[in-house]
Amino acid sequence: MKLFKGKTFLVFLLTAIGLIAAFIALFLYVASVSMADRTFSWDSKKTATPPGEGSGVPYVTMSVPEEKRWLDFTNHTAAPVGAEYDFTMINEGTGMLEGWTLDMTFNENLLIDSFWNGTYEVNGNTIHFTPDKNADFMKHLEPATFGAVIYSQKDLELVGYTIKGRLPIKVLDLPVFYILIVLGLVWIVAFFSYIVSFARVSRLQKQRERDLLIISQSIMTFTNFIDAKDPYTKGHSVRVAQYSMEIAKRMGFSEDKVQDLYYEALLHDAGKIGIPDAILTKPGKLTNEEYAIIKTHTTIGSEILSNFTTIPDIKDGAHYHHERYDGKGYPSGLKGEEIPLNARIICVADSYDAMSSHRSYRKSYDNEKILEELRDNAMTQFDPEIVPIMISMIEDGFTEKIRAEFGAEADYFGAPVV
Ligand SMILES: [Fe+2]
């Protein structure tokens, strides 16, 4: 289990990349909007009423108080109408207006006598106005006033204008920025929770692995006690467990069920603890009485394991592994599928190991003889569906591998990994 692997981490990585991309996109948007030149125009030929209060854009008004109008035929014979014109520009744009200039168009050609708050260039009936330095930015709704004394032939009327400037926006003014900040904070909190819970789960997993190892080694130790009772059966329980586990895997058991069967098979001969050594290791044929005692290892084993409830049905392997498919086995004489499946598997694995190992009373069988025995006893001693699986394990060399690893001569101890 790694912190920087897995679907959850991928989701965190992708959302982090998404959030960073969204922040970059937002800042690029702000920069592009702030640097863009904007134009706000009014032309009386197109729209009779000029933009005014509530228009949402920068606009210009012009006023001439009656007392500031006069006629001067002495010095301005060609353009005798003089007046002091006041202009007001209101910035109703989205924010600050920066670096602005203004072109105004009038109904008449004009002459400028004097001006204030900026620089004027006159060209026929137009004025190009550039505000004084430091006055070329206007806050939202802030007015800028400027004016001029102008002479013309008739009273001047403003018939159009074009305001040019930039309307920079601040990232702090955009709601989306705060949404992204909140999402970022949520991401940080979620990621730290993930790290904390990951650390906790890792600790629990390590603890669980250790617990499983303790269980596994305890069972192995007990298994070694069982096998130590009879030098001829050294490694028998481990091999039977390995064969049973492989049969279960080939039958498509779930991982948990394979693990349970492994332990069940390891302890299938637990009852041998209760059989006298003299009978267990007796060379040659057993008397009927001795054989009857040997048979009790099934029920003794079942009793020994009856308190071992954490592994489901673990005592069934001990109890029923000598039942026969035809119902002629012991201790209960169960038949066919009345015998628990795990016990039927252990029965085949147990018989294979018995046939392929030396015994106090005979030598081991060769593969040919074992295959013959398995085939001959399918339906009578063995479950006919398990026999072909055992045969395939012999034929593909699996059993050979297990015998080499856990055979009577092999030096092993511990818990083989399932
Ligand atoms: Fe047995």
Give an overview of the whole structure:
The longest helix is centred in the middle third of the chain and has 54 residues, at 175-228. It contains twelve helices and eleven strands. The radius of gyration is 49 Å and the shape is rod-shaped. Strands 1, 5, 7, 8, 9 and 11 form a six-stranded antiparallel β-sheet that branches. Strands 2, 3, 4, 6 and 10 form a five-stranded antiparallel β-sheet that branches. It folds into three domains: 6-33 and 174-201; 37-170, Immunoglobulin-like (Sandwich), CATH 2.60.40.290; 229-406, Hypothetical protein af1432, CATH 1.10.3210. With 418 residues, it is an alpha+beta fold. The model is unreliable at 409-418 (pLDDT under 50). The protein has helices spanning 6-35, 175-228, 236-250, 255-266, 277-280, 288-295, 297-304, 314-320, 341-355, 367-377, 387-395, 398-406; strands at residues 38-43, 59-63, 69-71, 81-90, 97-106, 110-116, 118-123, 126-131, 137-138, 143-152, 158-166. The structure holds fe (ii) ion. Fe (ii) ion binds next to loops.
Which structural traits does this protein have?
alpha+beta, six-stranded antiparallel β-sheet, 3 domains, 12 helices, 418 residues, 18% strand, Hypothetical protein af1432
How much strand content do the residues show? Answer: 15-25%
User: How many individual β-strands?
Assistant: 11
Residue stretches low in confidence (pLDDT < 50, at least 5 long) are 409-418
Helicity, as a percent range? 40-55%
Looking at CATH, the homologous superfamily of the largest domain is Hypothetical protein af1432
Structural category is alpha+beta
Assigned CATH class of the largest domain = Mainly Alpha
Question: How would you describe the shape?
Answer: rod-shaped
